[in-house]
Design a protein that fits this description.
Among the domains are: about 240 residues, no CATH class; about 110 residues, no CATH class. A hairpin with a 6-residue loop joins β11 and β12. The chain is an alpha+beta fold. The chain has a five-stranded mixed β-sheet, sandwiched between helices. It contains 17 helices and 22 strands. It is elongated and about 90 Å long.
């Protein structure tokens, strides 16, 4: 960013989106400043709110491409201080940034607690960036429409941004350096050379400090130490100020499967308002996590930018994501108290209920699909080798059991079917032909074991499924993939899909398409539904923990 000095007039400061040195994060910060001013000036009939917003002895105006802070003879300090006091608050012991929330609605403690937890993984990750107000307290929150939970919440007396107005004022005399909490992941190039340090001008300082409002912080489900940050880059500050509050509406919105899931979730939230969604030029995403070489802080371990080659392609992508998100909704699960041994060896539940809280179960499949959609790939690309989890990686194509490395839960099968219905030919035809072959194989096993004990039949069914999963998952060449496919088709007998559409499937059997066929075969296996589903889900695990493994 360099040592940039503003040639600001003595009675005002103009902050422009196209000013030199305005990175995506700083432009998002200007959007956060506009959203904060909108919340500060909001009233039901104030449609011209952006023309003049009072700030102590001065005022602010918001235009499409710039914001002007005017202080006249009073100087910048009282105006900037009034701005920060109104924009960075504590309510009920919880960090509150009014620019994030809909000013027309009352303060939502449940959403506020969820956002605070996300902020502690992104901007306020360092302990010194917040000041605690005593010990954790028990609060009642409503993480879902039909669920009320008691949670333990750490109350705060303040946080770094509340006093940062002093840095903004100091920047008028000399460029200032800001701590990592102001711009997560941004560091000087080399500590030994002062000319590589990040030095901020007055407008850059204010934009950086308000990036906590303009950006959207998320919690990455299954990884308690990771946070995701979405950086919306505004193209119209007046429209963005109204749009910002729509990105997080309920506590479940704060939980995502990963960076792409977060970016598409934020994009989908504002797409509902057709006349305002173009307030944002592009969306960028960042995942923050501690690393082995810097365990004391969270570093940027993944970044992405949502491409928008055409409006039609973008809208199609969001429509597909909307459907998979609907099929694979975030599940809010109340934690269960650990069972302990009683005096006579009986299990009893004596953990205090108020210490339990809840966790969000976000579909790993949804995160996988979101990554492919955002990258412009086929939604299933890489399904055969995709893994999730940090401590114990699990395969996405396999259903989760206590003694295996599968990641899928039974309820995620609906998401697979949603995506199969969106899949075009010949990919869909190949999947259906494999479904037909599996149905015939399981039918043959049923006939062979119908007079045997149910456990024997279940073991045969499970063994058959595992046999074909390993056959495709271990295929590393075109010959191995085609061999596994031919073996399945031949053992199943007459296949109507193959007979009617063999010419459509034939191009997929070329040598350069083997990885694509392998992915589709495992999609077919994971999505297979028998008439009675006797072989599928009886021994599969369900969510009981939020450890991500």
């Amino acid at each position: 960013m360099g040592q940039v000095k503003d040639a600001a007039n003595s009675d005002k400061l103009v902050l422009r989106l196209d000013e030199p040195g305005m990175t995506s994060m700083l432009r998002a910060g200007l959007g956060g400043l506009a959203a904060s001013l909108y919340a500060l000036s909001w009233s039901p009939r104030n449609h011209d709110w952006h023309r003049r917003i009072g700030l102590g002895p001065g005022h602010a105006t918001v235009e499409a491409r710039q914001i002007t802070l005017v202080w006249g003879d009073a100087g910048p300090e009282p105006v900037i201080r009034a701005l920060f006091e109104a924009s960075f608050q504590i309510r009920d012991g919880v960090i509150c940034l009014p620019g994030m929330f809909d000013p027309a609605k009352p303060w939502d403690l449940s959403l506020g607690v969820a956002v605070q937890n996300a902020l502690k993984l992104t901007f306020l990750q360092h302990g010194k960036s917040t000041k605690k107000a005593g010990e954790p307290v028990v609060k009642t929150v409503q993480p879902d429409d039909d669920k009320t939970v008691l949670v333990s919440v750490q109350p705060y007396a303040g946080f770094a941004h509340q006093e940062a107005w002093q840095d903004a004022v100091a920047a008028f005399k000399k460029g200032v350096q800001l701590a990592g909490w102001a711009n997560p992941g941004a560091v000087g190039r080399h500590n030994a050379y002062s000319d590589t340090e990040l030095t901020y001008s007055p407008s850059q300082t204010i934009a950086t400090l308000f990036s906590i409002v303009g950006c959207v912080s998320y919690q990455v489900a299954g990884d308690a130490a990771a946070g995701a940050l979405v950086v919306p880059v505004p193209m119209d500050l007046v429209a963005f100020a109204r749009t910002r509050s729509r990105m997080l509406v309920k506590p479940g919105d704060v939980h995502v499967a990963g960076t792409s899931d977060a970016v598409l979730s934020a994009s989908l939230a504002i797409e509902a308002e057709k006349h305002e969604h173009r307030s944002i030029a592009t969306m960028e995403g960042v995942t923050l996590r501690s690393t082995a070489w810097a365990s004391q802080q969270k570093s940027r371990v993944q970044t992405m930018r949502l491409l928008r080659d055409s409006d039609k392609q973008y809208e199609t992508m969001l429509e597909v994501y909307r459907e998979v998100r609907h099929a694979l909704k975030t599940r809010i699960i109340e934690r269960k108290a650990p069972a302990k041994e009683g005096k006579r060896g009986a299990k009893k539940n004596d953990a205090p209920r108020e210490a339990l809280g809840y966790f969000a179960s976000v579909s790993a499949l949804r995160g996988f699909v979101a990554e492919n959609l955002a990258a412009g790939n086929r939604w299933y690309q890489g399904f055969a080798t995709a893994k999730v989890g940090v401590k114990k990686p699990r395969y996405l194509h396999q259903y989760r059991q206590q003694d295996n490395l599968g990641a899928l839960f039974p309820w995620e099968k609906e998401g697979l079917w949603t995506m199969i219905e969106k899949t075009s030919d010949p990919d869909r035809i190949l999947v259906v032909s494999i479904h037909t072959a599996l149905r015939q194989r399981f039918g043959a096993i049923w006939d062979e074991t119908k007079n045997l004990p149910k456990q024997t039949r279940d073991n045969r069914m499970q063994g058959e499924r595992e046999r074909w999963r390993l056959a495709f998952a271990k295929a590393k060449t075109a010959d191995q993939t085609r061999g596994a496919l031919a073996d399945l088709w031949s053992r199943a007998g007459t296949n109507k899909e193959l007979r009617d559409h063999w010419q459509d499937i034939l191009p997929l059997l070329k040598s350069n398409e083997w990885a694509r066929v392998r992915d589709l075969a495992l999609v077919a296996l994971a999505s297979y539904r028998g008439k009675t589903d006797e072989e599928a889900e009886e021994t599969q695990a369900d969510e009981t923990t939020d450890d991500g493994n």
